[in-house]
Amino acid sequence: MSGAGELTVSRRFDAFGGTAIVAVTDPDGLERACEHVRETVRGFDAACSRFRPDSEITAVNAAAGEPVKVGPMLLEAVEAALRAARLTGGDVDPTVGGALIALGYDRDFDSLQGSSSVSIAAVPGWHTVAVDHEAGTIRAPRGVALDLGATAKALAADRAAAAARDAVGCGVLVSFSGDIALAGEAPDGGWRVRVTDDHRSGVEAPGQWVTLRSGGLASSSTTVRRWQAGGDAMHHLLDPRSGRPAAVVWRTASVTASSCLDANIASTAAIVRGERAPEWLSSLEIPSRLVHFDGAVVHLAGWPAEGDDLPAREQPRCG
Fold first, then answer.
1. d(CA 128, CA 105)
2. Residue 197 to residue 207: CA distance in whole angstroms
3. How far apart are CA 293 and CA 271, in angstroms?
4. What is the CATH number assigned to the segment(s) 52-139?
5. Among the listed residues 304, 299, 275, 301, the one whose alpha carbon sits nearest the alpha carbon of residue 289
6. Rounded Cα distance, 198 and 221, in Å
7. Which residue from 47, 224, 235, 306 could staple onto 74, CB 3.0 to 4.6 Å apart?
8. pLDDT tens, 242-271?
9. For the chain, what is the HEC assignment?
10. How many whole angstroms separate alpha carbon 244 and alpha carbon 234?
11. pTM for this predicted structure
12. 316, pLDDT greater than 60
């Protein structure tokens, strides 16, 4: 990541089990921006992490169908996850937690080990979750495990970038493991970012440089969070209809939108939808870059093809 045509400064630190990058257009504001981003990370982790026994979402999952009083951060995060489910016809569903646990993803990814057996759990469906904003409560039925992995980190990026911008009054870029949110005025020429299968890869990895000026960018990939269970390779992007990892048509989907949250909703749904994704993304005019499992790439809805290291794949016909 770099600023194009203007001096910017950045800092990296651990966040959400990955790497956070905070960049600002005013070097004097970097420390304060990082403080506000770290504060946002702490808040979202305490509210939304299903791997923390003391988190609010753990309390909701353990309440066996009783409503649980929670803070505004988890209320917003669950409402965002339910909105994602509505927008995608259930392809992005926050009630996949039980299915992930059944497949062996039952602890923080860094400590995940392969299991000797695996089971399949049905996904109850997002309609089973009730949010009472006036009462400040969330209710998940007995046996339902909420997992906000498809939306909470992206929402946190949006909130962190806005908080840092408000604090320092300059352009801010926040990246959480490659999910990027922008706030404030971009540097002259925009923010130049590298899009690859794995956000941890160096600039030498096959990918593409793109320039962002507002909104957000998110990438969902089946190549990064993988583990072995029951003798099979698993990834974390589940098809709620089967309770199993989505069939790998696209190994990576990268999307730009007006927010990091909306970009991540679309990129996750694209992986789940597989062959149906290009027509869907094109119909919504969402700029996207889809990398097929064979390594060829499709650029959709205005995403530029110039400068991509990967070979172009013939765009599927729509209609």
1. 22
2. 7
3. 11
4. 1.10.3980.10
5. 299
6. 8
7. 47
8. 888 888 899 999 999 999 999 999 999 999
9. CEECCCCCEEEEEEECCEEEEEEECCHHHHHHHHHHHHHHHHHHHHHHCCCCCCCHHHHHHCCCCCCEECCHHHHHHHHHHHHHHHHCCCCCCHHHHHHHHHCCCCCCHHHCCCECCCCCCCCCCHHHCEEECCCCEEECCCCCCCCCCCCHHHHHHHHHHHHHHHHHCCCEEEEECCEEEEECCCCCCCEEEEEECCCCCCCCCCEEEEEECCCEEEEEECCCCEEEECCEEEECCEECCCCEECCCCEEEEEEEECCHHHHHHHHHHHHHHHHHHHHHHHHCCCCEEEEECCCCEEEECCCCCCCCCCCECCCCCCC
10. 8
11. 0.90
12. no
More confident residue, 123 or 187: 187
Length of the chain: 319
C-alpha 91/C-alpha 265 separation (Å) is 9
Placement of tokens 């072995």 in the chain: 228
Per-residue tokens: 111: 């400590």
In single-letter form, the type of residue at position 319 comes to: G
For residues 65 and 200, the model is more confident at 65
Q: How many CB atoms lie within 10 A of CB 247?
A: 14
Here the tokens at position 80 are 């965002």
